[in-house]
Design a protein that fits this description.
249 residues; alpha+beta; Dna Ligase, domain 1; D-amino Acid Aminotransferase, Chain A, domain 1
């Protein structure tokens, strides 16, 4: 019988995409590789739609092990974060979720499979909605002082020699969702030299942080052997990797 909940430390499950989905599988792989990934547990695809008292007790037991008051609840569908389909922003994610709202947030993730955005994206990518299974990541909430995304190629110019960092103060979700004009830094991947820096709303990243983010991003790209779209956060001078997915055209 398939497990209903697993942790990121259960690395033997890293290849079981049908059980934990693409996003969770990537987090497990990165944690195993030594990248700083927030603590989390995964409600597997085997649990989808099962929200009885026993399931709730199991969820709250695992929540206690995270030792945090607030969590991020993120989708991890079996079709998500693959080489051919990212589903970026299509499924539901909920941030700063309290214990009282956790079950509701998990149900929102499950329900987002049948959302209009997902249906349209599936049609565009020729994916059958009925084949999608949804796992849910319940992740320690990182209250970022700075956050954003890194593309390990210049996606605007299709240039694999240039790495692009986008950063803003506060949660990186603002950058991901396009709610702010981020600081944008272009870096030569071979020399690590800064080629261009655009800071419309003021400087966000210090020189040391740019170097550290560049080093981490290039290590992640080397690990996956493909261009990556990486979401990151900085809290108390520590860099966290929230997710990494292949860049899809």
């Amino acid at each position: 019988m398939a497990k209903l909940i697993v942790t990121l430390d259960e690395i033997n499950l890293a290849s079981h995409n049908e059980l934990i989905g693409g996003k969770a599988m990537n987090l497990i792989k990165m944690k195993k590789r030594g990248f700083n990934v927030p603590h989390a547990f995964i409600i597997t695809t085997a649990a989808m739609g099962k929200m009885d008292r026993q399931m709730k007790d199991l969820i709250f037991k695992n929540l206690k092990s995270l030792k945090t008051d607030k969590v991020a609840v993120r989708s991890s569908a079996t079709c998500e974060d693959t080489e051919t389909a990212s589903f970026a922003g299509q499924f539901e994610s909920c941030l700063s979720v309290s214990k009282e709202n956790l079950i509701r947030a998990i149900k929102k993730c499950w329900a987002s499979i049948s959302g209009e955005r997902v249906l349209a994206y599936c049609q565009y990518k020729n994916i059958s909605v009925s084949d999608i299974k949804m796992a849910v990541i319940v992740q320690e909430m990182i209250f970022a002082e700075k956050g954003g995304v890194i593309f390990t190629e210049n996606v605007f110019q299709n240039n694999k020699d240039i790495l692009m960092i986008e950063a803003a103060k506060g949660l990186g979700e603002k950058v991901v969702s396009g709610l702010v004009n981020p600081e944008r830094i272009l870096i030569d991947k071979k020399t690590r030299a800064i080629l261009e820096k655009q800071s419309i709303n003021g400087e966000v990243l210090a020189q040391k942080e740019i170097k550290e983010l560049t080093d981490i991003a290039l290590k992640i790209e080397e690990f996956y052997r493909s261009s990556q779209d990486i979401e990151w956060a900085i809290m108390k001078k520590k860099i966290y990797i929230l997710q990494s997915r292949p860049i899809t055209k």
